[in-house]
């Protein structure tokens, strides 16, 4: 499955707008300037998904996972490397952790941060495409990326290809880095492309 | 000064909203999910309820419908990160007086709260 140049261009711009709203929300939360890379859009056969993402995402990660449903549905992931997650939680709770481990309070804070960031992104997505997207309650997950992705694949037996929209972001005054990933199956991707084509 | 019930399953969001509201001398009570919010509403009789949408257990729109049936003249604000236009229409249709987007900006929160407490509808669009 290959995107035309025009589809790729439109999708990249759409995702860029949605991810930029996410960056603005993170900047509002932390009071820091957020730098975000231009998003990359790619379609992977499901068997190649883990390998493709392992090249850009560290293995020891903290993930906020939110399922979205509607005319365009899929999985949205906010990935933070573990150290970055601890630092972000410290920034938002004004607490310093000698142990560098995430406690229950940190996990709760990071879940809400993920909720805000993923909703900012997907809401913009819904607004531009003029479709309504429903959100699940976000879940914080601490397993390795490969296990996380395999659980997504198992949950969706019909998933053969996935659209992955990926970007990395950094906070100006700290070493917090993260990744945003949206995974869509082919059916959702077809609907998304139809909607994108109507944008002109 | 008003008594305001905050309903959100996130401690971070409850804490942030409490700090903003208390800075304007409002009294705050909290609930972390819909069923306890309904109990608190009856017991505390707040002047205003500010509620999240995506919560464990009861969804915010269901809570809003139940609160609205308990008190059709009640004042209710939805506070959510779901900023879709379609969501704002649903929230308005379910009887909310206003919508506050997350993350919370203190000035916007207080302007919206004071407008609703003064009896006005705050255009969410």
Oligomerization state: heterodimer
| End-to-end C-alpha gap of chain A | 21 Å
What is the tally of helical segments of chain A?
Answer: 6
Number of domains of chain A: 1
Helix content of chain A: 40-55%
Total number of beta strands of chain B: 5
What is the overall silhouette of chain A? globular
CATH superfamily of chain B: Response regulator
Q: Which radius of gyration of chain A do the C-alpha atoms yield?
A: 16 Å
**What's the overall average pLDDT of chain B, rounded?**
92
Overall tally of domains of chain B: 1
- The chain-level mean pLDDT of chain A equals 81
Q: Which CATH class of chain A is shown?
A: Alpha Beta
User: What fold name goes in the CATH topology slot of chain A?
Assistant: Chemotaxis protein chec
Secondary-structure element order of chain B, N to C: EHEHEHEHEH
Uncertain parts of chain A: none
The greatest inter-chain interface is formed by: A-B, 26 and 19 residues
Summarize the structure.
The complex is a heterodimer of chains A (200) and B (125). Helices cover 48% and strands 25% of the residues of chain A.
Question: What does this entry look like structurally?
Answer:
- The complex is a heterodimer of chains A (200) and B (125).
- Chain A has 200 residues and is an alpha+beta fold.
- Chain A has a single domain (5-198), classed as CheC-like (Chemotaxis protein chec, 3-Layer(aba) Sandwich), CATH 3.40.1550.
- Chain A has six helices and eight strands.
- In chain A, strands 1, 2, 3, 4, 5, 6, 7 and 8 form an eight-stranded antiparallel sheet that branches.
- In chain A, a hairpin with a 4-residue loop joins strand 3 (61-69) and strand 4 (74-81).
- The radius of gyration of chain A is 16 Å and the shape is globular.
- The mean pLDDT of chain A is 81.
- In chain B, strand 1 (3-7), helix 1 (11-23) and strand 2 (27-31) form a beta-alpha-beta unit.
- Chain B is α/β, with parallel strands linked by helices.
- Chain B starts with a strand and ends in an 8-residue tail after the last helix.
- Chain B has a single domain, classed as Response regulator (Rossmann fold, 3-Layer(aba) Sandwich), CATH 3.40.50.2300.
- The A-B interface holds A 25, 28-29, 92, 105, 108-109, 111-113, 115-116, 118-120, 123-124, 126-127, 131-133, 135-138 and B 9-13, 54-56, 80-87, 102-103, 105.
């Amino acid at each position: 499955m290959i995107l035309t140049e025009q589809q790729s261009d439109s999708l990249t711009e759409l995702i860029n707008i949605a991810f930029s709203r996410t960056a603005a929300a993170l900047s509002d939360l932390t009071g820091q300037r957020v730098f975000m890379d231009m998003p990359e859009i790619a379609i992977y056969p499901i068997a190649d998904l883990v390998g493709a993402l392992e090249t850009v995402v560290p293995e020891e990660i903290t993930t906020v996972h939110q399922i979205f449903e509607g005319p365009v549905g899929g999985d949205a992931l906010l990935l933070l490397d573990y150290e970055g997650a601890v630092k972000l939680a410290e920034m938002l709770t004004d607490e310093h952790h000698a142990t560098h481990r995430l406690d229950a309070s940190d996990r709760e804070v990071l879940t809400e941060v993920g909720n805000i960031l993923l909703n900012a992104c997907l809401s913009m997505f819904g607004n531009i495409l003029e479709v309504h997207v429903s959100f699940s309650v976000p879940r914080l997950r601490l397993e390795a990326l490969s296990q996380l992705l395999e659980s997504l694949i198992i949950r969706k037996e019909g998933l053969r290809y996935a659209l992955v929209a990926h970007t990395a972001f950094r906070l100006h005054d700290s070493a917090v880095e993260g990744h945003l990933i949206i995974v869509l199956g082919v059916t959702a991707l077809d609907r998304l492309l139809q909607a994108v084509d109507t944008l002109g | 000064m008003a008594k305001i019930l905050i309903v959100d399953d996130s401690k971070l969001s409850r804490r942030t909203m409490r700090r903003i509201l208390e800075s304007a001398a409002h009294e705050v009570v909290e609930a972390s999910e819909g069923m306890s919010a309904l109990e608190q509403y009856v017991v505390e009789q707040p002047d205003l309820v500010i509620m999240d949408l995506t919560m464990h257990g009861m969804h915010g729109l269901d809570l809003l419908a139940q609160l609205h049936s308990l008190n059709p003249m009640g004042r209710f604000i939805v506070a959510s990160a779901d900023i879709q236009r379609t969501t704002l229409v649903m929230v308005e249709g379910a009887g909310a007086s206003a919508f506050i987007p997350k993350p919370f900006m203190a000035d916007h929160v207080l302007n919206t709260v004071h407008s609703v407490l003064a009896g006005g509808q705050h255009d969410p669009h």
